[in-house]
Amino acid sequence: MNMQEFISIIEEEFDEVEKETLTPTSSFRQMEGWSSMHALILIALIDNHFDVLLTGEELRVLDTIQDLYDLLVSKKA
Amino acid sequence: MSYSIIKNISYHLPSEIIENKDLAQLFPKNSEETIYKSFGIKKRHIRLPNQTGSDLAFKAAECFFEENLDFDKSKIDFLIFCTEGLDYKAPTSSSVLHYRLGLNENCGCIDMPMGCAGYVYGLSLANAMIVSGNATNVLLLVSDIPSSVIHSQDFDLRCIFGDAGAATLIQASEVKGIGSFVFGNDGEGAKNLIVERGSTRSPIDREWIELYQNEPGYLAHGKMEMNGLEIARFSLQRVPKLLEETLKKNNLTFDEIDLFVFHQASKFILSALKRKCKIPKEKFYEFYENVGNTVSCSIPIALKNAQLEGKLKKGDKLMLLGFGVGYTWGGTIVEWV
Prior knowledge:
The complex is a heterodimer. By secondary structure, chain A is mainly α. Helix content of chain A is about 55%, strand content about 0%. Chain B is globular, with a radius of gyration of 19 Å. In chain B, the strands form four sheets. Chain B has a five-stranded mixed β-sheet, with helices on both faces. In chain B, strands 8-13-12-11 form a four-stranded mixed β-sheet, sandwiched between helices. In chain B, strands 2-3 form a two-stranded antiparallel sheet. Helices cover about 30% and strands about 25% of the residues of chain B.
């Protein structure tokens, strides 16, 4: 999955996010109404698409979509 | 050799109801609509003050006898009571229930203090008693009163959980209505869903009562703590494996299952599991909108409603998976009769 596809599935999953507004440098924590529930949704989404189950701790130290993507790429490598 | 079947199920919900508008009033940052959107729950039933788990189980059993007038309750030769809210340290609550229900003297009674996986474990005990020739009519009562251990300001827990009781009669039969079981446990997860105080390891003390003096009953039964993220991770990691193991143990394929009935943990967990396990919508039964997560009662309540909705046909193969607090998990196959 390339970065563009990754962004699309995130935009698809979160109703609050307008389509084609996220970029690799967007901070997912700054997304409208970000809460612990969103962290959960993101973890489940990544598990579903990448078969990688991130821990809360792993997610906590990340900020941007690029950070997240890089971690997933390294985990799948 | 005899097998066992689920003969029938009844349940009881206490009359006190908490709707989303009540929660929105108590937690003004959240609207009725956002609560429904996040949790998929419209209302939860809550016990009356001083009602215990065994009181709800008693009501469920009474309801069962009323709905099954042709069944002679003196035939019950074993009573299993599963709850995390036992009446006393001693005697067993099943013993007290046995007396209140007026059951036959020659009836064994046992308590099982288990949560989310409790119903599946209860079925396994009932099935074992019958298959081993030691009982023919086992009454499995389950009930939970999570509201008694939830802090009044804990928004998530108050949204998710509801109280209930359920009664299931498991009977000896020529038909193999209850299949083989898969069990599992990981006590390292204990800390992620726990009612920490109020029992032997850490009883409440003066400090606790002062801290919670404004809470109903000073939270003397303890206070539930849940790490929602870890519970969701556990469910996503474990339940798909449990599903595969349960199929294998029963020599069945995924497509042979007519209905998947999981512990009704939460809208989020169930949606994520349905997606991850690739279960078609019409084969995945969800029932939490009007009751919330009722812990050990969630599977029998779901089964009963699936039956009432005409979703269960004779011969249908149902996969029941219980998982959660412990961590503990268990799975089996029920053939509906």
